[in-house]
Amino acid sequence: HKLSNYSVTSTNGTLTITQAPTTTTITSALPATSVVGQAYTVTVALASAGGIPSGSVAVDDGSGATCTILLSNGSGSCSLTSATAGTKTLTAKYPGDTNFAASQGTATHTASSSLGFNGLLNPYVAPTITSSGLDYTTVYTIKSAVPLKWQYTSGGTAVNSSSANPTVAIYPQQGCNDTNTSDDQPITVTAVGSTTPTYDPSSLTWQLNWKTTGLAAGCYNIVVMNGQTQQTNGPFPIKLVTK
Asked: Quick one: pLDDT band at residue 4, thresholds 50, 70, 90?
């Protein structure tokens, strides 16, 4: 066919293909509250109408702690450990690549300087405070092992404290109404089984089976120290008697 009724011209031009926009979202930071020096897991998701972004995401807590996520199917996690206490603004930064534009997202996380402590657990029973001093309604027989059990908490709920690295110190009381340990020398703590506290992840509980063999009858103060947070909990008074 002839194109006698048409004229054909061409014009040079430029076709620009831009990077697809992305959205970076921190979907979780767990546990929601950590303690200084305790690792928590930050999970990030990338989304784009142009496909599934790949590459890596840098995460920081605004106070010097960082970790890097290698994306898999647009998401991933990394372990972050804050070195200072306070409310942290977590920032996840995706640098972009040839096909996808850079983006970033933020979330908050609380790093506490110490964990809660709900006291020594059963079978320990704390003495009753009366007007005349401490009333030891429950006493423990020398030559028996006294199970010392405790949990660390956050917001009143027991939390994973497997990295707490706790130790136990026991001080003899001067009488049975003395809860001041500042001037006392601790005794050597021996135990039945493990000589250091052991952790049960199923119950989130630490335990030391204190061996009382050879100790004098009387009252003692128990103090628990957390090697991770450097916090000290106690004293917890206890009375030992002979059979």
From this structure: low
Pairing, β 33-35 against β 103-112: parallel
Q: Determine the pLDDT at residue 2.
A: 57
CA–CA separation, 227 vs 77, rounded Å?
Answer: 27
User: Position of tokens 């250091």?
Assistant: 196
Distance of alpha carbon 210 from alpha carbon 231, whole angstroms: 21
Strand-by-strand arrangement of the 145-150 sheet = 145-150, 205-211, 198-200
**Structural domain ending residue among the three candidates 112, 141, 166:** 112
Is the separation of the CB atoms in 138 and 240 below 8 Å?
no
- What residues contact 65, with CB distance under 8 A and at least 6 apart? 80, 81, 82, 83
pLDDT by residue (tens digit) across 93-143?
A: 999 999 999 999 999 999 888 888 989 999 999 999 998 889 999 999 998
Query: Is the torsion defined by CA of 103, 108, 112, 118 positive or negative?
Result: negative
**Which domain CATH number covers 80?**
2.60.40.10
Distance CA 119, CA 147 (A): 13
Q: What angle do CA 49, 53, 59 make, to 5 degrees?
A: 120
Q: Rounded CA gap, 189 and 64, in Å?
A: 39
Q: Are residues 156 and 191 in the same domain?
A: yes
Cα–Cα distance between 191 and 167 in angstroms, integer? Answer: 12
Q: Which domain holds residue 179?
A: 116-241
Does 126 map to a domain?
yes
H or E element in which residue 153 lies: strand 152-154
